[in-house]
Design brief:
The complex is a heterotetramer of chains A (486), B (345), C (192) and D (167).
Chain A lengths: L2 H4 L11 H4 L4 E2 L5 E5 L9 E2 L6 E2 L4 E4 L8 E2 L4 E10 L7 E9 L20 H9 L13 H8 L6 E6 L8 H8 L1 H15 L3 E7 L3 H14 L4 E6 L8 H9 L14 E5 H13 L5 E7 L7 E6 L4 H7 L7 E6 L6 E3 L12 E6 L17 H5 L6 H6 L6 H6 L10 H5 L6 H51 L8
Parallel strand pairs in A: 1-14, 9-10, 9-12, 10-11, 13-17
Antiparallel strand pairs in A: 2-8, 3-5, 4-7, 5-6, 7-8, 13-14, 15-16, 15-17
Helix pairs in contact in A: 3-4, 3-6, 5-7, 6-7, 6-9
Chain C lengths: L1 H13 L2 H4 L5 H5 L4 H30 L8 H21 L11 H18 L6 H29 L11 H15 L9
Helix pairs in contact in C: 1-7, 4-5, 4-6, 4-7, 5-6, 6-7
Chain D lengths: L1 H23 L6 H8 L13 H9 L12 H12 L18 E5 L9 H5 L5 E2 L7 E2 L19 E5 L6
Antiparallel strand pairs in D: 1-4, 2-3
The chains are: A alpha/beta (486), B mainly alpha (345), C mainly alpha (192), D mainly alpha (167).
């Protein structure tokens, strides 16, 4: 398996980044109210530490992680907790989730996090991981997996390799590019902290070939830090090269086992934004209460990147960007390939909000009518997981669990490459997304059936044995005493 | 303000089945043009008849199956089928040949199996094989290519149309005077008569590379095929595998006995080798799915084509070879699923 | 050498008895589209047919004919097939993957072996044991391939939007017709 | 003539021997095993047999039809029809309704009096508890057969949607 083999999959998509990278990162204006959903990371919802009418200060913890995979939440502003109630959140089509609503008093009174430290080298790696966890930092690439949980599962004796993911392959998103251009030192600082926390051997920053300014900025920052463990690896600008598993194959030439994690092959991958957030926490004591959000698309007047506090309404960012244009048609959080479609903009920025696309019909033309698959195979050429989407599609109707499992339906990463190239305009990814739970359920059902059968047999045998013992006892009792035993 | 929501991905390349088929049709045009230059306008009449039949059959089948008619008529797949079939028929073949063959292809080989995308056998080749097996005489009535220094029998456009529609030649001509075997057929007959390869190929019907006229038509096909490759309508696996298989088989036998077996160049430039490699075998619906599968599929067609041509009873083997490999496609697909990312080989 | 090649070719390609003789049609009906079933049947045929053919040919050539009992040939074939096939089945039972999928499996293999064996014996070209063995191996391979191909095709067609009245049997017959058409390409291939 | 007879007899004896040898060997995976493998193993007895295995044996012997398994639904009925080589048909209404979602039993703990009747009824040992102590259902092991519901004297067992298994 070589890196070049990966390049057989994926697509060279037309980039739309220039639109949002003209201006530097700007600070989003403050809003009246901040809505902090409790489930804005993957894993379990956080547990609130505050109750309505409590006063909170900026950076104060307002929710603690549930046991298991979860993360801390901090208040982005100072003010009063107005309510803890279900509010629309930017996932699952804007379905409401339990959120803490904070009214901003505009004073930004800071809560002093006692634990903030300046020199991470003084604490042990395990403590460093815990410390990073207390900042509520999650993967900022879009998946929002709690960083502390990822680091815990990655601690290995012989030292993993750290990979900082700056390959932003989605054509519309530019928040990581702007971050690398303007805050390269934060990234390098965060990288060194992660190296320490993981006892990692070295750190590779992956960056796409088409962002020379960001490359230069990072090189300067590395030189300034004088850390020889950190290097830069330029990867081709192919979608989805920034997917964790795809990036690992491109950079290291090894594949992550389908049933394993990158840590299993001694690699830990973190987004560059995550590294910068870690730097701010360790150096400045600032927990994860803001992030850089790209607002772009033909549907807003002025595209750009904004440093927005978590909980800022989308509508406020849209106003900052000059408001909607007349052509505004669709709202998407995330990229054009994998982003979540949203029905309205009364939604808060969450830790996973890397981009808001206000799309016009010029950006995203609707699909034409679906035709039958002609098995042209464009999809299998584009698939970065080396699947055969045309075969998967064939075996979906009617659903054939055996064949779908054989063809690796569960290995689909839903990147959308197959959809993109399909001449028959078949919504393949949507179908696969729907079919995955069905297949999982079918495969699980087989396992549980086997277990149930085993227990049923064991029980029947036990009952039979008890019955036999019981009869033997009865027989012994009934037997007259003087009868000789045989 | 509310916005419509559609699932990701939100952008798609605006490709369509219709575009793919249109490009295939354009890529066939050089072949058609040279064919007309060497064999007269018969082919155009055949294509017209074939396309008309194909569209009518398609509409009929769609109506019967209660499917929308318009999008499927517009996709152009029926036109491609009709053109490929017409290209395989002799230019003066009677009208009912192309009509029945095309109707058979569309109705039976395509719609019986579920229409576009579901047919396991190449419809055009099913149609051709049925005709070849049922009406071998009519299918061997080829014309001599233009520019041969044997006695020229030119038919005017009107006479061509008349011949095709009535099935009989103008009274001044007889079939024996008009027709001439294809190079492959001529070679077979000559060799059977005990000629050596050199003697057999000395006949005026043979040109520099292969058959006279045919070599140019095949070069045009090659150009069209390369265009398809360049536009990424087809991928290299099937043509390369099929042509290399033909070349390797032919070279091997040629090395064994150059007196009995024609060389690889002759095999490439005669018959339907190139048309088959670039336009027929590459029909994605009836071809194997994975890259590895396509290599096996193409190579199989190449070898079978050579075998049938060289030792079989029919003049060309491409149609039968394609059908035989179509038959094996589900099996090939079953055993050539590519390794998935993160899985051991 | 070329005679042997000819025999192999003719066995694999032309004399596909499965397509030309009625009893051998049964394998296609019996596997009812389960690919696993076809796999078992194909492997069984691959073991049984050459075994039956070799034993029967040897008996015929070295026992029956020298003793003027050539007329017993067919009978001997049937008996050999009946004796060998259960043994093959026994071997296959040891591997769960090759488990016979359906009742009546041994009968099928027996019929096939016998039919193909008889065809083999009456073929005048079988002059020595090497010819006979290679012919039977080729025959078994061809039969096995066809069964697998047909089962795989059947599986694939399960997912096609086939017009209601043509589902299953009619379409299988149409496919068989097109298959036979394809095999007509080999006509005239072996004439010597 | 005599040679012919001898040859035939020798061969027939060989064939008979082979048949006897193989007939004596047990079939390692029986038809009932293969049917059992297709059943959902809920052990719910809605098929009127005392569990999935007895139903499988009944089908193998021709004593039961292929459409008697509501938990398996259409898929199981189809798979059985395919294995047995008969025409598929929908699950018979007399055997119960095909459930839309998998369900598991749940004991409302406040009401449970600890009578152990449900423990005795559970065919797959998915209920734990001791006499006069509260019982509980191991959701992961529950097949949703509902056999524990009728014996409960205080009606404290209800069916709930099965928890989705996290991957």
């Amino acid at each position: 398996m070589t890196a070049s083999e990966l390049l057989t999959g994926g697509l060279r998509l037309e980039a739309h980044k220039q639109r949002s990278t003209k201006a530097p990162i700007r600070i989003a204006s403050l809003a009246e109210r901040y809505v902090i959903p409790l489930d804005q990371h993957s894993g379990l919802s956080a547990v609130p530490l505050v109750k309505p009418s409590d006063r909170v200060r900026m950076w104060q913890p307002i929710a603690q992680p549930a046991p298991g995979i979860s993360a801390w939440l901090h208040s982005p502003v100072s003010g009063e907790v107005v309510a803890i109630e279900p509010r629309p959140a930017p996932h699952r089509l804007g379905a409401p989730t339990l959120s803490i609503v904070i009214a901003n008093d505009g004073r930004d009174e800071r809560f002093e996090n006692a634990a903030a430290i300046v020199s991470f080298e003084q604490i042990s790696p395990t403590e460093a991981c815990e410390h990073i966890g207390r900042a509520g930092i999650v993967g900022l690439g879009g998946a929002a997996f709690p960083t502390a949980n990822k680091l815990e599962s990655s601690l290995c004796e012989n030292g993993p390799q750290l990979l900082l993911n700056g390959a932003e392959c989605e054509p519309y998103i530019s928040c990581d590019e702007m971050l690398m251009r303007e805050r390269a030192e934060d990234i390098v600082f965060g990288g060194r902290a992660l190296l320490h926390a993981l006892c990692a051997r070295n750190c590779t920053i992956a960056i796409e070939e088409d962002v020379p300014e960001a490359q230069a900025a990072l090189l300067r920052a590395i030189e300034k830090a004088g850390d020889s463990r950190i290097r830069i690896k330029v990867v081709p600008a192919i979608y989805p090269a920034g997917g964790e598993r795809q990036l690992i194959a491109t950079v290291f030439g090894v594949e992550v086992p389908h049933d394993g994690l990158p840590a299993d092959i001694g690699i830990v991958c973190q987004n560059v934004g995550t590294a910068a957030a870690i730097a701010r926490w360790i150096r400045d004591g600032q927990p994860l209460v803001s992030r850089i959000v790209t607002v772009t698309g033909d549907g807003v007047t002025e595209a750009g990147n904004w440093e927005a506090r978590i909980g800022t309404p989308f509508s406020s960012l849209i106003v900052d960007s000059g408001g909607y244009t007349e052509r505004m048609a669709r709202l998407i959080m995330g990229g054009s390939m994998m982003g979540i479609p949203l029905p309205h903009d009364d939604l808060p920025v969450v830790k996973a909000t890397n981009c808001i696309i206000a799309a016009s019909a010029l950006d995203l033309q609707p699909r034409s009518a679906e035709m039958p698959c002609i098995r042209c195979g464009n999809c299998s050429q584009a698939c970065p997981a080396f699947l055969l989407p045309q075969q998967l599609h064939w075996y979906l109707q009617p659903f054939d669990g055996d064949q779908l499992a054989r063809h690796g339906l569960l290995d689909c990463i839903e990147c959308g490459c197959c959809d993109y190239v399909c001449p028959s305009q078949i919504p393949l990814v949507e179908r696969f997304r729907e079919a995955k739970p069905l297949l999982t359920r079918e495969l699980d059902a087989r396992l549980t059936a086997d277990a149930a059968r085993a227990r049923f047999i064991a029980r029947n045998e036990r009952l039979a044995r008890l019955e036999a013992e019981h009869r033997a006892k009865l027989a012994a009792k009934r037997r007259p005493r003087n009868e000789p035993t045989s | 303000m509310t916005f419509p929501t559609t699932p990701a991905p939100h952008v798609v390349a605006h490709d369509s089945v219709g575009r793919v088929m249109r490009i295939v049709i354009y890529a066939l045009l050089p072949t058609v043009l040279l064919h007309v230059a060497f064999f007269g306008v018969g082919l155009l009449v055949q294509i017209t008849l074939g396309v008309a039949t194909a569209l009518v059959s398609e509409a009929l089948a769609l109506r019967l199956r209660r499917k929308p008619v318009e999008p499927f008529l517009k996709d152009g797949s029926a036109i491609v089928t009709a053109m490929l079939l017409a290209l395989c028929l002799p230019p003066l073949a009677p009208w009912w040949l192309v009509v029945s063959g095309t109707a058979f292809a569309i109705l039976l080989a395509k719609h019986l199996y579920g229409g576009l995308g579901a047919n396991p056998f190449n419809p055009a080749m099913v149609g051709y094989a049925v005709l070849l097996v049922s009406f071998p005489v009519q299918l061997l009535q080829w014309l001599p290519p233009a520019g041969m220094d044997m006695e020229q029998v030119k038919l005017s456009i009107g006479e061509t149309v008349q011949t095709i529609l009535t099935g009989s030649l103008p009274s001044r001509l007889t079939w024996d005077a008009v027709t001439s075997p294809t190079p492959l057929e001529a070679l077979r007959t000559n060799l059977k008569m005990g000629m050596t390869m050199a003697e057999a190929q000395a006949a005026p019907i043979f040109g520099t590379l292969g058959g006279r006229g045919w070599e140019w038509i095949n070069l045009a096909t090659l150009a069209g095929g390369l265009a398809l490759l360049g536009l990424r309508i087809i991928r290299w696996h099937i043509p390369v595998a099929m042509l290399s298989a033909i070349v390797i088989s032919a070279s091997l036998m040629y090395m064994v006995d150059p007196g009995t077996y024609a060389g690889p160049i002759f095999h490439l430039t005669s018959g339907a080798s190139l048309l088959g490699a670039f336009f027929i075998a590459t029909d994605p619906i009836s071809a194997a799915t994975s890259d590895r599968g396509r290599l096996i599929y193409g190579a199989g067609i190449g070898v079978l084509t050579y075998v049938i041509r060289t030792w079989g009873g029919y003049p060309d083997g491409v149609a039968f070879a394609v059908l035989l490999m179509n038959l094996s496609v589900p099996l090939i697909d079953r055993y050539t699923i590519p390794r998935i990312y993160g899985h051991a080989r | 050498m070329s005679a042997l090649l000819l025999i192999l070719l003719s066995a694999v390609l032309v004399n596909v008895m499965a397509l030309t003789r009625m009893p051998s049609w049964r394998p296609f009906a019996a596997v009812t589209g389960t690919f696993k079933g076809a796999q078992g049947l194909a492997i069984a045929s691959l073991i049984a047919i050459p075994l039956v053919a070799t034993i029967a040919w040897s008996l015929s050539a070295w026992v029956l004919k020298p003793n003027g009992l050539g007329y017993l040939g067919t009978f001997v074939f049937v008996i050999v097939a009946v004796a060998v096939v259960p043994l093959v089945e026994l071997i296959m039972r040891r591997d769960a993957r090759l488990q016979p999928q359906r009742p009546g499996f041994p009968l099928l293999v027996t019929t096939n072996s016998a039919v193909l064996g008889i065809a083999l014996m009456v073929d005048a070209r079988m002059q020595n044991i090497v010819d006979a063995v290679s012919f039977s191996v080729a025959m078994a391979a061809a039969l096995g391939f066809l069964m697998l191909a047909f089962a795989a095709m059947h599986d694939r067609l399960q997912h096609a939007d086939v017009p209601g009245v043509f589902r299953d049997a009619p379409l299988a017959l149409v496919s068989a017709g097109i298959m036979a058409l394809a095999f007509m390409g080999f006509t005239g291939l072996i004439q010597e | 003539m005599i040679t012919a007879l001898v040859t035939i007899m020798v061969l027939a004896a060989l064939a008979g021997l082979a048949t006897v040898v193989t007939a004596g060997a047990p079939e390692e995976i029986s038809l009932a095993d293969r049917i059992d493998a297709l059943l959902p193993q809920t052990q719910c007895r809605r098929c009127t047999f005392a569990g999935c295995r007895p139903y499988a044996e009944a089908i193998a012997q021709g004593a039961a039809d292929i459409n008697q398994c509501p938990p398996g639904g259409e898929r199981t009925a189809k798979a059985l029809a395919r294995l047995m080589g008969v025409a598929p048909k929908p699950v018979g209404k007399e055997f119960g309704v095909v459930p839309d979602h998998p369900a598991v039993a749940f004991i409302e703990e406040e009401a449970c009096i600890g009578c152990t009747k449900c423990i005795q009824a559970c065919p797959v040992d998915a209920i734990v508890g001791a006499s006069r102590h509260m019982h509980t259902v191991i959701a992961a092991d529950c097949t949703g057969c509902e056999l524990c519901i009728p014996p409960c004297p205080v009606d404290c067992i209800i069916m709930r949607p099965a928890p989705t298994v996290a991957r």
